[in-house]
Write a structure and sequence with these properties.
It is built from 3 helices and no strands. It is mainly α.
Length: 56
């Protein structure tokens, strides 16, 4: 059985892989979460999101 490549089927499957990290890595993990967290919405963006929610 041959595995399909991205070129053959036009998309790539994604899977979430959970790995148990040792407690010693907690600081690094927290720093990465903060670095890649979404920025809080400004009041203008929040108002626009509220408008979209009411319209949809």
């Amino acid at each position: 059985m041959k595995a399909a490549t991205v070129e053959e089927n036009g998309h790539m499957d994604r899977r979430i892989i959970r790995v148990e990290l040792p407690p010693a890595h907690a600081g690094v993990t927290a720093a990465l979460r903060r670095a890649f967290a979404a920025e809080p919405l400004s009041s203008d963006e929040r108002a626009f999101e509220d408008l979209l929610a009411r319209l949809g």
